[in-house]
Specification:
Blueprint lengths: L1 H10 L22 H8 L11 H14 L7 H4 L6 H8 L3 H4 L2 H12 L1
Length: 113
């Protein structure tokens, strides 16, 4: 049963060892529909300029993990949830950089500190 659970985690991309943290070559892979994103976005917190950015990212990540959203999609879900200041920082990233959640998160946290 343990092996089955481990393989299930890899299918959904929740394991950090799977090497798919960023996938700029194929950003549309994973068969997630626009309607599916809309449903997920309804669950996500929005951030404000005066909110603690680290606490925001921790909450966001927990919700995405609880709903088994593949990490490769996290960066696509993030922009509509950002505060005006965070969105301004996000907009300075290249397209390839903006496809990688870890790059986006690191850049926003650095820019807001």
């Amino acid at each position: 049963m343990r092996e089955e659970e481990g393989s299930h985690r890899n299918v959904h991309g929740n394991s950090r060892e799977n090497g798919r943290r960023c996938n700029p070559q194929n950003p549309m892979s994973g068969n997630v529909t626009v309607a599916g994103f809309r449903d997920v976005r309804a669950l996500l917190p929005n951030t404000t300029d005066d909110a603690d950015p680290l606490a925001y990212f921790i909450s966001l990540e927990r919700i995405l993990e609880l709903h088994s959203i593949d990490r490769m999609h996290w960066a696509r879900l993030l922009p509509t949830q950002l505060s005006p200041k965070a969105l301004k920082i996000f907009s300075r990233l290249s397209i390839d950089e903006s496809r990688c959640y870890d790059t986006v998160k690191r850049t926003i946290l650095s820019g807001l500190s």
